[in-house]
Amino acid sequence: QSTPSNKPQPTTQPPTEAVPEQVYTGEIKFDSHITSSGSNITVSGSKALISAGGDYYISGKISNGQLEVNTKEKVKIFLDGVSISNSSGPAILISDAKKIVIELVDGTTSTISDGGSDKINDGALFSNDTITIKGNGTLNINSNNAHGISSDDDVIIQEGTLNITSKKTGIMANDNITVNGGTLNIKGGTNGLKSKGTMNINGGTTIVY
After folding, report:
1. Which of these, 33, 103, 172, 182, could form a disulfide with 204 (CB 3.0-4.6 Å)?
2. Has residue 1 got a pLDDT over 70?
3. What is the torsional sign of CA 77, 118, 184, 194?
4. Three-state SS string across 155-188, please?
5. Rounded distance, CA 66 to CA 123, Å?
6. Are 143 and 119 in contact (CB under 8 A)?
7. DSSP assignment of 11-26, as one string?
8. What span, in angstroms and rounded, lies between the C-alpha atoms of 206 and 124?
9. If pLDDT is split at 50, 70 and 90, which confidence band does 12 have?
10. How far is CA 136 from the centre of its chain?
């Protein structure tokens, strides 16, 4: 008669499901010569234009350059430690988009700066449409023209750390501002946050100087 063994019996573990790798519609790397891959991207000198919907990965560093979005479709931009300065207008210009989301890649710090005296596109990050910012990275914004973030529609902050220094208002919205989370450190020349519609602070930390 056999005696039961106290040795642990092997167990069958279910296979670990692989996390699918992010696939981007296109990628842009800013440098003295901008390089791009994928679809719907046009490079002209120191400017890069996204002209159709999709997910776009942005990296690199450029002085006196610009990233522009102009499409009727939904666009999501991933900022991975990018640095863009523009002495004559917005560093990031959303001329048109059905929906625009900027995601700050986790653990990275991106910086944008503007200049000039553009009274229409009056933000270092300017959008004609509603803009949403998310992701657990950091975005430094230096506005030498007017506002840090400026939108003709809504501005929605879901998460992330935003350090904004602006000549006028830190975040300016023609419609509504909604802050659901994240950390906002704003040093504004005239206002921290200014909304011509409603202002909804639902979470996060907001510090205004």
Report:
1. 182
2. no
3. negative
4. EEECCCEEEEEECCEEEEECCCEEECCCEEEEEE
5. 13
6. no
7. -PPPPPPPPPPP--SE
8. 20
9. low
10. 11
DSSP letters spanning the chain: -PPPP-SPPP-PPPPPPPPPPP--SEEEEESSS-EEEESSEEEETTEEEE-S-EEEEEEEEESS-EEEEE-SSEEEEEESS-EEE-TTS-SEEEEE-SEEEEEE-TT-EEEEE--S--SSS-EEEEESS-EEEESSSEEEEEESSSEEEEESS-EEE-SSEEEEEESSEEEEESS-EEE-SSEEEEEESSEEEEESS-EEE-SSEEEE-
- pTM (two decimals): 0.90
What confidence category does residue 22 fall into, taking pLDDT thresholds of 50, 70 and 90?
confident
- Measure Cα distances from 87 to 37, 54, 115, 143, 147 in Å: 26, 28, 4, 10, 14
Other Cβ atoms closer than 10 A to 111: 19
- Please compute, for residue 35, the number of CA atoms within 13 A of its CA located in the half-sphere on the CB side: 4
* Cβ neighbours of 153 (radius 10 Å): 17
Q: Per residue in 123-148, is it b (16+ CB within 10 Å) or e — as a string? A: bbbbbbbbbbbbbebbbbbbbbbbbb
Distance from the Cα of residue 9 to its chain's centroid: 51
Scanning the structure block, which residue is given the tokens 């205004």? 208
Residues 152, 167: Cα–Cα separation, whole Å: 19
What is the rounded distance in angstroms from the CA atom of residue 192 to the CA atom of residue 179?
Answer: 13
The answer to whether the CB of 170 falls within 8 A of the CB of 188 is: yes
pLDDT exceeds cutoff 60 at 65: yes
